[in-house]
Structures are given as structure tokens and as C-alpha cells.
Amino acid sequence: MGGFCAEVWEATAETRAAIDELPFVKGLADGSLERDRFEYYMVQDALYLHGYARALASTAARADRSEEIAFYAKSAHECIVVESALHEGNVGSVEGAKPSPTGTAYVSYLQSLAQTGGYAELAAGVLPCFWVYMDVGSRLMEKAGDLAGHPYGDWISTYADEAFAESTRKACEITDAIAGRSDAPTVARMREAFARATTYEWKFWDAAWKKETWPFGG
Predict the structure, then answer these.
(1) What is the DSSP string of 78-126?
(2) What domain of life is recorded for the organism (predicted)?
(3) 3, 66, 91, 151: which is deepest, by most CB within 10 A?
(4) pLDDT at position 157
């Protein structure tokens, strides 16, 4: 990765290091994570991905280059079809489940970019969900080794998969290109969107460890 992506990746190093230290992520790596916490996470992730897919679709709608339209539209489709299969295999239907405060805030932030921001900010805002997951998944794979018998092997293998890594590289390539043809104020807003979404990635896993609920019944 180069240009804009290299810059924002380095700028969010502290946040990403904090993700690695979360007890939820450590428990995923060694398989010690309690099943109820993992199931809470999977339900919340399924709910989040519905909103994230809409954000990807909005990104496709705002793009003006055919390759970029195709990429974000395909990603929105895979978000629903491919990753939903992973969730259904672990927790079944999420019908009637309530999004957590953090999940609601993260989706609302992406929706605000779609409603009030430009294409560039939205592309930067949806990137961490690709890149942080690929980064965490690949390192979890290294730590876990042989996934045979690992209680969360299907999750790890999904995000450590080469096809997902290729999608991430493509998302970075597109975001670098967008930044390269944008003015300085737009690039500054892109930096902010990437940093904010990366922080939400940290908050999402932290919320899963705490099994976050709405105060007073939501």
C-alpha cells in the first residue's frame, strides 16, 4: 500500500495495537473466548453488516468510474451473501435481535457519510472494515496455526482468506486513487473518516467482550 493508505495506516497504529490487546481478540486467537461472547459478537456483526452493505451500495452509487462502481457493488453483495452464511452457521437467524449501542453508532456514522459526505469520505470510511479485519485475521491465523479443531477456525479462515485479502488490496488501491485526484480539504476529511471508522472497529470488539446492552432496556 502506498500514498494515502500508507499514511492513514501509520496514523492509526495506536488504535490497531489496542485492538490486538483486546481480550476478545486474544481469546479468538487461542480459542479460549467464551462461546456466549462469540455468539453475542456474531449476532451484532450480522446486524452491523446489513448496515455496512448499504454503505457499500451507497459508495457504489456515488462512484463515477465503472471499475469502482463494480467493486463496491460486488462487495455489498458479498457482504450479505458470503458473510451471512458464516453468521447463520454459528448463530442461526438474528431475526428480532437488537443492535448494540456501539453497532448502532458505527452504522449511523457510515450512514452520515453517505448522506452528508462525498464519495471520497465514504470510500475512506468503509475501508477499515476491510483492512482491519484482514490484518487481524491474518495474524490470528499465524498465532492459531492449524485450525483443525479450533473452535473459531471458520471465522479466522474467512478473514485470513486470500480472496478477502485481494478485495482489501483493491479497496486500498481505489482509495489511494480517489485521494490522488482529490483536493487537500477532501483528503483531510478522508483521514478523519478512516480514523473514526478504525476507532469504531476497536469499540465493536470491546463491546462484544462486555456484551454491551442498552441502558434502561434501550
Answers:
(1) HHHHHHHHHHHHHH---TT----HHHHHHHHHHHHHHHHS-HHHHHHHH
(2) Bacteria
(3) 91
(4) 80
CA–CA separation, 110 and 51 (whole Å): 8
Please, which residues have CB within 8 angstroms of residue 120's CB and are 6 or more apart in sequence? Answer: 178, 179, 182, 186, 187, 189, 190
Cα 188 from Cα 157, distance rounded (Å): 35
Q: How far is CA 59 from CA 143, 178, 200, 207, in A?
A: 34, 12, 19, 27
Contact (CB, 8 A) for 201 and 131: no
Distance between CA atoms of residues 63 and 196, nearest Å: 22
H/E element holding 169? helix 162-180
In a 10 Å sphere around its CB, with 0-12 CB exposed, 13-18 middle and 19+ buried, how is residue 202 labelled?
buried
Percent above pLDDT 90 for the chain? 65
What is the rounded CA–CA span in Å between residue 126 and residue 105?
14
Q: Which string of DSSP letters, residue by residue, matches 56-88?
A: HHHHHHH--SHHHHHHHHHHHHHHHHHHHHHHH
Joined together, the cell numbers standing for residue 29 give: 486467537
Res. 88 pLDDT band, cuts 50 70 90:
low
Rounded distance, CA 140 to CA 1, Å?
Answer: 21
Whether the predicted pLDDT of 143 surpasses 80:
no
* CB hemisphere CA count around 66 (13 angstroms): 0
